[in-house]
Amino acid sequence: MEKYRKLIESIRLYSMIALGFAMAISGNLIVCLSIAIILGFVDQIFIKPKLMPKRK
């Protein structure tokens, strides 16, 4: 997972930018905020622990 660190960080960045554009274009704040919360939970629960350095 360590060798994909930059790719995952860039995907996270671009997804947040795309979500911001979707929020600005659609104007539907509730839907975009709920998608952002779901993506944040997925990121915190599944992706972030795998990117943490291994403890020896």
Question: What would your notes on this structure say?
Answer:
The protein is mainly α and 56 residues long. Helices cover 80% and strands 0% of the residues.
Range of helix content: over 70%
Please tally the β strands and state the result: 0
The oligomerization state is single chain
Please, what is the average pLDDT?
Answer: 77
Low-confidence stretches: none
- Portion of residues in beta strands equals under 5%
H/E element order: HH
Count of helix runs: 2
Essential attributes:
2 helices; 56 residues; mainly alpha; 0% strand; single chain; 80% helix
Brief account:
The chain is built from two helices and no strands. By secondary structure, it is mainly α. The protein is elongated and about 50 Å long.
Topology:
Layout: H1 5-26, H2 29-51
Helix pairs in contact: 1-2
